[in-house]
Amino acid sequence: MKSSVVPALLMAALLLAPAACGGGASKSDEGGTATAGADAAAASTPMSGTLAADIGEAMASDGEGTPEPTPNATVEKLAETFTLPEAGDADAPLLIMEFSDYRCPYCRQFFDETMPSLRKDWIETGKAKLQFFDLPLTMHGFPAVIGAEAAHCAGEQGAYWAMHDALYASFDDLTEAADAQDEADSMAEILKVAEDVEGVDIDKLTACVESQQYRPIVKELADTALEREINGTPWFILLAGDHAEQIPGYVDYETMLPLLEREYSRALGTPIPTDTPAPATPTSAVTAEATATTP
Fold it and tell me: How far apart are CA 142 and CA 34, in angstroms?
């Protein structure tokens, strides 16, 4: 994957903070390493504590004598050309980076309660652009990973955001599957959601998901977030020029609005208010320490 997928400027500004749905340990705790560049698909160290699934031979050895996998040409090509899903005007002054998990209840709450106004007032007006980073957490099982893969597969048919929305809209129907650790059952549930997504050829999407060609891409996105100690979901970064403002955890629109306005003013180079408080993590937040498990 191209290193340009994640702005270097942002990475220098990230700090650790609490979030709503808990993730795994940081890389410094796990002893893992990330890989960058076009060969990211053949990363040599699996990231336990981030992806819910056994990431398989395509993801590489355990560092203890397991042979390195043969590079997959399809995956390598994806890694070379992959760009983050984006919504909004490419030239929008403000960039909103969302780190999310399709099985996180707080991510679903944000989608239901905050995203409609965010889309209407900021993304559709050209004031902000949204980038979506997959961060499937171990505690949420295979559906979190397969949901991310399915969204990218739908993206090949021009239906990324339609699939993204359908996955969150189907959250309650997938509750049982979210507790299962069976990959085949989880895939069947996700593909059932895809059947009703407009613009999706279900046969093509099924073949794409079953190939797992996007799993290394999802892993790299998750590794990138975890490496920067973004280890919970949802998590947001407002990027205005060279300034990165973090919002860890779920926030309602009324809480997010003054932060958006402040960073938008910063991006435009106009005077900004100095008394905008940072949002507090909800008291109902689930912490990584309390909930992280290994499937």
Answer: 21
Q: Output the CA–CA distances (angstroms, integers) from residue 125 to 10, 118, 253, in the order listed.
A: 24, 10, 16
The arrangement of strands across the sheet holding 128-134 comes to 86-87, 128-134, 94-100, 235-240, 243-248
Confidence band, pLDDT 50/70/90 cuts, at residue 25: very low
Retrieve residue 169's tokens.
Answer: 């809209």
In whole angstroms, what is the distance from residue 292 CA to residue 143 CA? 16
Distance CA 178, CA 182 (A): 10
Q: What is the 3-state secondary structure (H, E, C) of 71-115?
A: CCHHHHHHHHHCCCCEECCCCCCEEEEEEECCCCHHHHHHHHHCH
Indicate the SS3 state at residue 233: strand
- Judge contact between 135 and 233, C-beta under 8 A: yes
Band the pLDDT of 209: cuts 50, 70, 90.
Answer: very high
3-class state of residue 129 by DSSP: strand
Cα 116 versus chain centre, distance: 19
Residues contacting 257, CB < 8 A, separation 6+: none
Output the pLDDT for position 9: 36
